[in-house]
Write a structure and sequence with these properties.
37% of the residues lie in helices and 27% in strands. The protein has helices at 23-33, 48-59, 104-111, 126-132, 135-138, 158-167, 177-185, 191-201, 240-253, 258-273; strands at 2-6, 10-14, 17-21, 37-45, 63-69, 75-81, 87-91, 115-119, 144-148, 170-174, 206-210, 216-220, 223-227. The strands form two sheets. It has a nine-stranded mixed β-sheet, sandwiched between helices.
Length: 274
C-alpha cells in the first residue's frame, strides 16, 4: 500500500514549546505506524526551523520529499488551548508549504501511488490550488483520493471545498464542518444524507465523520457504523483527527469491517488526545 500525502509540514507552537505538526505530516506518520508505505511531500524554508523539522522527521522514521524554499519561511502555527484541550490556531501565512512545486520526484511518486492524500488548508493560496489539479489526474485508475477538509477561518474558499468534494473517494469531516459545507452547496445537513448524495453524484466511497466527545460515524456504501466517544484524560486534541483519518484509510484499503475500523480509529484518536 503506497500512500502519498501532499501538504503541510510545520511547527505547532504552544506556550510551553513547539511540536512537529501539520495535517499531512500527522497523517503520514500514523499511516506509517499502521504499516503502510507512506511518504510526505511538502516544503520548508531555508532556515533553522526547517533543518530541525527534517531532523525530527528522520528521528520518527517518516519518509519524505521536502523541498527547500528560499523565499518563504518554515511553517508554524501558534496554538492556544481552550477548555478540554480544544485548540485555537493562528496559522502563519504565507510559508514554505504554501508553494509546493510539481518536481520530478513528486510526479513520479503520484504516478506510483495507491492513495493520494491532501486537505483543504494546503490549498489556501493559488500555487497549491494549481498544483493539486495535476496529481488527481496522474493517480493510477485504481488509486484513491483521501481528503481532509479543515475549515480554518480565512483559509478556504467555496471553490477549494468544491474541488475537494469533487475528487474525494474518502472524505473526513467533523460535526462543525459538515453543516457549513452542506449550507455552502445546498446539500443535506445530516451525515447520512450528505454521504448518499455525494456517493451518487461524485466519487465518494466512504465518509469519515467525527463528533469530538460524542464519537464518530463511518459510512461506506450501504453500511453505517456509529460509535460513542471514549472518556480519556485529554491533554489536547491537536492531531487526533489526522490520526483517525490515517487509521481509517489503511484499514479501509485492507477491506476491514466498518465496525472494526471505527473501534481502531476511536482508540488511536483517544490515545493522541492524551
Amino acid at each position: 500500500m503506497n500512500i502519498i500525502a501532499v501538504g503541510e509540514l510545520l511547527w505547532d507552537c504552544y506556550p510551553g514549546g513547539r511540536q512537529i505538526g501539520g495535517a499531512a505530516g500527522n497523517f503520514i506518520y500514523h499511516a506509517t505506524l499502521m504499516g503502510a508505505q507512506a511518504r510526505l511531500m511538502s516544503a520548508v524554508g531555508n532556515d533553522a526551523a526547517g533543518d530541525d523539522l527534517l531532523v525530527e522527521l528522520a528521528r520518527r522514521g517518516v519518509a519524505c520529499h521536502v523541498q527547500r524554499n528560499a523565499r518563504y519561511p518554515t511553517g508554524k502555527v501558534e496554538v492556544t488551548l481552550k477548555a478540554r484541550g480544544v485548540p485555537e490556531y493562528d496559522i502563519v501565512s504565507p510559508v514554505a508549504w504554501d508553494v509546493i512545486h510539481p518536481d520530478v520526484t513528486l510526479v513520479a511518486a503520484v504516478r506510483a501511488a495507491d492513495v493520494l492524500y491532501f486537505g483543504s488548508l494546503v490549498q489556501r493560496h493559488p500555487p497549491n490550488q494549481r498544483l493539486l489539479h495535476m496529481p488527481v489526474t496522474l493517480l493510477p485508475p485504481a488509486g484513491k483520493v483521501v481528503v481532509d477538509i479543515n475549515l480554518r477561518q480565512g483559509h478556504y474558499t467555496p471553490a477549494v471545498i468544491a474541488f475537494c468534494l469533487r475528487y474525494a473517494n474518502f472524505l473526513k469531516l467533523n460535526d462543525e464542518e459538515l453543516p457549513l459545507i452542506a449550507d455552502m452547496f445546498s446539500l443535506p445537513r445530516d451525515p447520512d444524507g450528505f454521504y448518499q448524495h455525494l456517493r451518487h453524484t461524485a466519487r465518494l466511497d466512504m465518509l469519515i465523520y467525527t463528533r469530538g466527545e460524542r464519537g464518530s460515524v463511518l459510512l461506506r456504501g450501504d453500511e453505517r457504523d456509529a460509535l460513542p466517544g471514549q472518556s480519556v484524560a485529554t491533554v489536547d486534541t491537536v492531531g487526533a483527527g489526522d490520526a483517525f483519518t490515517a487509521v481509517a484509510t489503511v484499514l479501509a484499503l485492507q477491506h476491514a469491517p466498518l465496525a472494526e475500523i471505527n473501534r481502531a480509529d476511536s482508540k488511536v484518536a483517544a490515545w493522541v488526545c492524551t
